[in-house]
Amino acid sequence: MVQALEAGRFVARDIGGGDPERMAPPRVAEYVLQAFGQSGPVKVTVLDDPRVFERDYPLFQAVNRAAGTVERHRGRIIFLEYKPPKTARKTVVLVGKGVTYDTGGADIKAGGVMAGMSRDKCGAAAVAGFMKVVEQQKPADVHVIGVLCMVRNSVGEECYVSDEMLTSRAGVRVRVGNTDAEGRMAMADALCQMKERVLSEGLPDPHLYTIATLTGHAVLAVGHSAIVMDNGPARAVDHGLKLQRAGETVGDPFEISVLRREDFDFHKGKCYGEDVLQANNLPSSRTPRGHQGPAAFLMLATGLDKCGLNSSHPIKYSHLDIAGSAGDVPDTPTGSPILALAEAHLG
């Protein structure tokens, strides 16, 4: 197990620590294909067609528009899937934010805060790393799916802007409030797709995750720990506490934040024609409950808010903000939260 964990962290460090060119989206796809091969237990599928993005992943494609004008920066959505040899008793689905460089977009990062933004892909890097652990451990009865949403948030004549109205894969009308809140946009449609698959295929005991270096607020709140936020079904089984204990066991610490009604109210549409507000126009570090709100947005934009405890089809969902735990330049990426997730689901 130790060798498998370190192999996973190696993959996460390589992707997460790569510079904006070495690990641009197309090159991440090449790396993943090489790392997992074509005949191993983890199957890899790469999407690169902007027409498919426009149709099936419209929020992702909005972020990808500016970078899409430069071939070597064009976005990729990478799927990794492990199917166990025995009947699966549970399904773990991980969707990772893979922003290979974050300029902030039209709401550009100014004042010297853009340096280090090649680390904004550490969520997707951790998903790839966890899948490497799965590949080596080959759990007998755990079905695991990983999605890497690889995109560059560039500035240019094609970049998306605040006030744009976009319709998500779930049919939710989203008004853009801040182009520097691109991570939630990059993940939302893939998360919705995984929700659809869980429901249509009846996957056993599913748990959906988003993993992202999402907010500066998370760093202010808990320092160098990761944060777990559970929806109702996940909280009902004490998932946050279990993940926190798993992290304490392996040195991958988590703090627990609770989603409240006001987090959802904050993101509900305020203007005619919009269902959901993507973000306000302030940094998360200057926004009350700045790390909880994005989790609420992801639920609202994907329809996961309709999969709660009292619904006919409850689905466990947890958002992991690793902005504090992933490792900043010049330090080596940590691979968080691979160890905690492996202890919780594979240990």
Describe this structure in words.
- The chain is of the alpha/beta class and 347 residues long.
- It has a single domain, classed as Zn peptidases (Aminopeptidase, 3-Layer(aba) Sandwich), CATH 3.40.630.
- It contains 12 helices and 11 strands.
- It has helices at 2-17, 25-36, 50-56, 58-67, 122-137, 182-201, 216-222, 232-236, 239-250, 261-267, 293-302, 338-345, and strands at residues 42-47, 76-82, 90-102, 142-153, 165-167, 173-175, 206-212, 226-230, 254-258, 276-277, 316-321.
- An 8-stranded mixed beta sheet has the order 1-2-4-3-7-11-8-9, with helices on both faces. It has a 3-stranded mixed beta sheet with strand order 5-6-10, with helices on one face.
- Keywords: Aminopeptidase, Hydrolase, Protease.
Rounded to an integer in angstroms, the radius of gyration calculated over CA atoms is 18 Å
Shape: globular
Summarize model confidence as the mean pLDDT: 97
| SS strand fraction | 15-25%
Structural category: alpha/beta
CATH architecture: 3-Layer(aba) Sandwich
GO molecular function: manganese ion binding; metalloaminopeptidase activity
Organism: Anopheles maculatus
GO biological process, one term: proteolysis
Domain Cytosol aminopeptidase: 178-185
